[in-house]
């Protein structure tokens, strides 16, 4: 016999296990909040902008080939910025206790589409150090790229600045708690349906018919408690005495 579950049964299951669902959701939010505020290290972000000025002659025209050449040059600069040729001098100037590979993990270089501006983004546990790394990297690149590529078309457009009250970009407690709430809710619903699936006891007349597959012939009335029986018997005796 194929077992089917109605929408009403689903709502009954959720209602019956509402406490478990609420408990798992609150517990997940609490754990996520505690981890975000107490255990995860705040990460701060700052950036500097580098402008790549292409020299244009009077006879030059803006063609697709020129645009492609500009983009390739900027992509090359993006690679050079994160190379040991730039990062090793940065480490030496700042006396950083890390390798060029470790410093690379803190730096992200990106450019806007069809833009001559290169953004050097630095993430670090210390906001002041993030600013210093970004500015030092830009300065070293501006000076050393002249010898590396024999060009003089790079300048710092906007240096990184330390804000008075910097806010960390990681972790995001609100986002973490929101995700935890969804996960806790899903977990609670899963537990609710798992309990219902594992519960094979028969509680109603319909359960008997569904599980055994036979029609119900009769129902035994609930047995009254001893006190109720004594009260009923006493009332019957009084009624008989009055009638007699």
Automatic annotation (TrEMBL):
Q: Which GO terms describe its cellular component?
A: plasma membrane
Q: Which residues form the Tyrosine-protein kinase G-rich domain?
A: 144-196
InterPro entries found in the cross-reference section: Bact_polysacc_biosynth/exp, GNVR, LPS_length_determ_N
Please list the GO terms describing molecular function.
protein tyrosine kinase activity
Q: Name one Pfam family in it.
A: Wzz
Q: How does it sit in the membrane?
A: Multi-pass membrane protein
Tell me where it resides: Cell membrane
Keywords in alphabetical order:
Cell membrane, Membrane, Transmembrane, Transmembrane helix
UniProt KW Thylakoid keyword: no
Main subcellular localisation: membrane
Q: Which residues form the Polysaccharide chain length determinant N-terminal domain?
A: 3-93
UniProt keyword annotation of Cell membrane present: yes
- Please list every transmembrane segment annotated in the UniProt record, as residue ranges: 20-44, 174-194
Task: Enumerate the PANTHER family for this protein.
Answer: FERRIC ENTEROBACTIN TRANSPORT PROTEIN FEPE, TYROSINE-PROTEIN KINASE
Family, as annotated = Belongs to the CpsC/CapA family.
Recorded protein name is Capsular biosynthesis protein
